[in-house]
Amino acid sequence: MAMEWTEETIARLRDLWQQGLSTAEIGRQLSVTKNAVVGKAHRLGLKPRPSPIRRAAKAASAPAATTAEAPAPTPAVENTPATPAAEAAAAPAVTPAAPQAPQKAPAKAQATPTPAPQPKPAAAAETAPAPRATRATKAALRPVSEPRRRSSQSCCWPLGDPGTPGFHFCGATPLPGKPYCAEHAQLAYVKLRDRRDNVA
DNA sequence: CCCTGATTCGC
DNA sequence: GCGAATCAGG
C-alpha cells in the first residue's frame, strides 16, 4: 500500500524538511524511507535544499535540437554555496521526536524547554550506543526563524496508532509556523538523538 | 563504509 | 502518485 500522504502527514513532512532535517531523518520519524521522503518532497514542489550531488546529465539528446535552446548562459557554475540550512541543518539542536505515543510513553523527559540555546548538545549525550546519527550530533544550527507556510489549522500530532480506527490527530490550534500545538511542540522538539524505532 | 540527496522507472 | 532501486557526491 502506498503511503497515504494526508494533509497532516504532508504538513509534518514540510515542517521537518524546512527544519533542515535530512531525508533519512524525516523518513525515520515519518516511518517511511528516505526515498519516499525525497520523492514526495519533489512532487510537492519543495526541495530547495543542498544537494550533495549533481547527477550526470542524462544523455537524453534532444531529438529535435531546437535552435531556440539554451537560454541559460551558465551563470553559476554549480550548486549554491550559500545554503544556510545546509550543514547546520544537518543536526538541528532540537529534533522532532518521533511522535509515538505521547500519551502512553512518558516521553524522554529530556525535553528541553529552551529551543536550541546550546551549541554543543552532544558530548554528554553519548551514553547509549546510538545506532546511527553520528554527524547528526555535531552541528547546532540557529533557531529557525521566518515562519512561513502555514502548516495546517490544526495540530497534526498523531495520537494512537496510524492505521487503526482510533488514530487521529490532536487538532488543537498549532503554533505559528508549526504543525503542532504548543503542548505537542514541546514533545515534538526534544533534545536530540532519541526516537528511531519508537514508533513501532 | 558511512552519510547525503536526485533521478529513474516499475508499480 | 508512490517509492525501491539506482545513481552520484562527500
Question: SSE layout and pairings?
Answer:
Layout: H1 7-19, H2 23-30, H3 34-44, H4 87-90, E1 95-96, E2 158-159, E3 168-169, H5 182-188, E4 189-190
Antiparallel strand pairs: 1-4, 2-3
Helix pairs in contact: 2-3
The protein binds a DNA duplex (11 and 10 nucleotides) through helix 3.
Sequence stretches where pLDDT stays below 50 over 5 or more residues: 59-131, 133-145
Structural class: mainly alpha
User: Main beta sheet, described?
Assistant: 2 strands, antiparallel
What's the helix-strand series?
Answer: HHHHEEEHE
Radius of gyration: 19 Å
Q: What does the overall shape look like?
A: globular
The proportion of residues in beta strands is: under 5%
Average pLDDT confidence is 61
Strand order of the largest sheet: 1-4
Query: How many helices in DSSP terms?
Result: 5
Please give the number of β-strands.
4
Helical content, roughly? 10-25%
First and last CA, distance: 18 Å
Structural overview:
It comes from Komagataeibacter xylinus NBRC 13693. Residues 42-155 are annotated as: Disordered. Residues 58-113, 121-140 have a biased composition (Low complexity). This is GcrA cell cycle regulator. Among the domains are: 1-49; 152-199, no CATH class. It starts with 6 loop residues before the first helix and ends in a 10-residue tail after the last strand. It has helices spanning 7-19, 23-30, 34-44, 87-90, 182-188, and strands spanning 95-96, 158-159, 168-169, 189-190. The protein is mainly α and 200 residues long. A two-stranded antiparallel ribbon has the order 1-4. Mean pLDDT is 61; it is low at 59-131 and 133-145. The longest helix has 13 residues, at 7-19.
